């Protein structure tokens, strides 16, 4: 039986020190290729105007932008500390990314203004996923694609601790477990998705996570 979900936080990482540690962790995930970019592209994410929800230090979106060369790239992030790191990383990539501070449930962005929306590893922090799904629908243009990926709580004991002990730096390991405990199962996300304007989306699970993909009708 899968343990009940334990809510983690809906405020992101606000501490400058913790943000720097998370940046090191995210950079390592990028270097290993564990960032979901290949899956996003195969799901239909393409060029045009792209929005990333919860980019953190920005590596997932920046790696995606490097490969598909979008017309514009915007990140909506709740943490000012993370925005500062993402802006620095974007400069190092040479990508003209724009980051705005905001909550995914009420993004400070205009209607029907993006061709694609992505998010990786932040859904478990969303206070109300249905409201974020509805916001994704609002900002997407007709025919726009979305791909949301995150961990899933029911990966099992062996996978959980294999990943735990391979996570570096070690300071991030407690945060990994709390994030995993706050993540959703495929069935839970399907129920939430069915209650939203993205109800036609597809929920799939993989080795340690799940993905939501689809197109705005």
* Count of DSSP-assigned helices: 8
Widest sheet: strand ordering: 3-2-1-4-5-7-6
Total DSSP E strands: 7
Q: By helix and strand content, what is the structural category? A: alpha/beta
CATH homologous superfamily annotation? Vaccinia Virus protein VP39
Q: Can you tell me the number of structural domains?
A: 1
Strand content: 15-25%
- The CATH class is identified as Alpha Beta
User: What is the terminal separation in angstroms?
Assistant: 36 Å
Weakly predicted, low-confidence segments:
none
From the alpha-carbon coordinates, what is the Rg to the nearest angstrom?
16 Å
Helix content: 40-55%
The CATH architecture assignment turns out to be: 3-Layer(aba) Sandwich
Described by strand count, sense and barrel closure, the largest sheet is:
7 strands, mixed
Shape: globular
User: What is the CATH fold-level name?
Assistant: Rossmann fold
What order do the helices and strands follow? HHEHEHEEHEHHHEE
Summed over residues and divided by their number, the pLDDT gives a mean of 93
Protein name: Class I SAM-dependent methyltransferase
GO molecular function, one term: S-adenosylmethionine-dependent methyltransferase activity
Domain Methyltransferase type: 51-148
Keywords: Methyltransferase, Transferase
